[in-house]
Specification:
The protein has a single domain (7-121, 160-310), classed as TIM Barrel (Alpha-Beta Barrel). It is 43% helix and 19% strand. It has twelve helices and 13 strands. An eight-stranded parallel beta barrel has the order 1-2-3-5-8-9-10-13, surrounded by eight helices. A hairpin with a 4-residue loop joins strand 6 and strand 7. Helix 2 (49-58) runs parallel beside helix 3 (77-90) and helix 6 (173-182) packs across helix 8. The longest helix is centred in the middle third of the chain and has 20 residues, at 118-137. The protein is globular and about 60 Å long.
């Protein structure tokens, strides 16, 4: 496995911002050395990802913007392709497209969107990624699938920076195989196929080192010859970095439904002082090939020393 240099993303969580606050945050993320500022795609107190990405990029000079991750079921890929092409054009190509099958059953119910079985959602996701890549990368594109049909469509604006990297994220075998075959970046997550993230189920069963090793084996098998080209990303649910933070490991482990050892070896949790967290990340890269690490925005300041030391290494 090729050893890729580390890079770090920050996923925004929490309350929405006004214009000044959002621009200030984007600048702080850039100054802290993060590669990418990422927007989730949920129907609660977050900024809408597409306009927020443009505003963040406009406030910065090198920071990439992306989504972690778009719920495919919420948008038709032909409509999304035009939105993404516009974002790419207005950010000088600093766009990273994260997309998944959509997992939060409650949101689907609130919006009145049918929450299809996992296999059907993943099937639609695979077709949507093909449509997105085709529309973003072709002069004129047609597609005939089970779920989407595109006829001689030209997507505007045309991209001068090439097709943005596409991340497909998830925790189940089918979605990870989709990522392995079609994405540029494979986003490792817990398995949320049942529509909830609950203590003792999705987290405990799918956040362990053993579960991650299984996921990487699925990706490797499905990717075949293209596996060395893939960037492997982990979404870190909790990053507790700093003096005495290791003391909270037992409480945190109990909270998420893992053993202390399970928490320590999981690629979805970072707990301890800066040198330990750096060692943990290097171990994860050696063991799983993870080089792209996404933490939540509550860890912006505490992760900054780790980002400064490991980015590009």
């Amino acid at each position: 496995m090729t050893t890729r240099p580390f890079r770090f993303g920050l996923e925004m969580v929490g309350s929405a911002f006004d214009r000044v606050g959002w621009r200030d945050l984007a600048r702080e993320v850039e100054a802290s050395g993060f590669s990418t500022l990422l927007l989730p795609d949920h129907a609660y107190d977050f900024l809408a990802p597409v306009p927020a990405m443009v505003a963040a990029a406009d406030a910065t000079t090198t920071l990439r913007v992306g989504t972690s991750v778009l719920a495919n079921e919420f948008r038709h890929p032909a409509v999304l392709a035009r939105d993404l092409a516009t974002v790419a054009a207005l950010t000088d190509g600093r766009l990273e497209v994260g997309i998944g099958a959509g997992w939060h059953a409650g949101e689907f119910d609130q919006m009145g969107i049918a929450f299809a079985p996992p296999g059907r959602r993943v099937e639609r996701l695979a077709e949507a990624v093909a449509v997105l890549r085709g529309l973003l990368g072709s002069e004129e594109f047609s597609y005939s699938g089970r779920h989407y049909s595109i006829s001689n469509l030209v997507n505007y604006p045309r991209l001068s920076h090439g097709v943005p990297p596409i991340l497909v994220g998830g925790g189940g075998r089918r979605v990870l195989e989709c990522a392995a075959r079609q994405a540029d970046i494979v986003g490792l997550n817990t398995n949320l196929a049942n529509g909830v993230r609950a203590r003792g189920t999705a987290v405990m069963n799918n956040a362990t080192a053993a579960a991650t090793a299984q996921k990487i084996s699925w990706v490797r098998e499905a990717a075949g010859d293209r596996f060395p080209e893939l960037e492997i990303c982990t979404r870190v649910y909790r990053a507790r970095v700093g003096p005495r933070h290791q003391d909270i490991a037992p409480t945190l482990a109990d909270e998420v439904g893992l053993s202390v050892q399970g928490l320590a070896s999981s690629p979805h949790f970072l707990v301890g002082e800066v040198p330990k967290v750096m060692d943990d990340l290097q171990r994860m890269r050696a063991e799983f090939g993870i080089s792209y690490v996404v933490v939540t925005s509550d860890a912006l300041k505490s992760m900054a020393p780790v980002v400064a030391k490991l980015t590009g290494c």
